[in-house]
Amino acid sequence: MTTVGSSRPLDTLPILAGRSHPEFVAAVCTHLDHPPASVRQRTFSDGAIEVKIEENVRGRDVFIVQSGHERPNDHVMELLFLVDAARRASAQSVTAVLPYFRTARETRRTSRGSLFGRAWLPTRSKPLAYRAC
Hints:
Helices cover 27% and strands 26% of the residues. It is α/β, with parallel strands linked by helices and 133 residues long.
């Protein structure tokens, strides 16, 4: 049985795949020799997104792999829905893995009086960080 770190067996760590880059998720899961968790995702004709985790994630550490590839706004919303679904399913923790985050390259400005203190932050990354936490 493969382990992550030294304490948790890999089979207790569900990997949820977003639809942004299925080839990358497949490569990650192949490398870890661990299948992705079963997630049903669909987009309705009006553009609304539905996400349903079809495995029990209660009390488990969940990893969500999603990138901002191609249609970043759709993929960001899908990521937020996946995070919300995992939290509502009582996951112990949720970790978002974002190999490519398009808004991280936006114009930067100084942020004062924020959670991050006085720092240079991407202007569109900050709202997403607040929503995903």
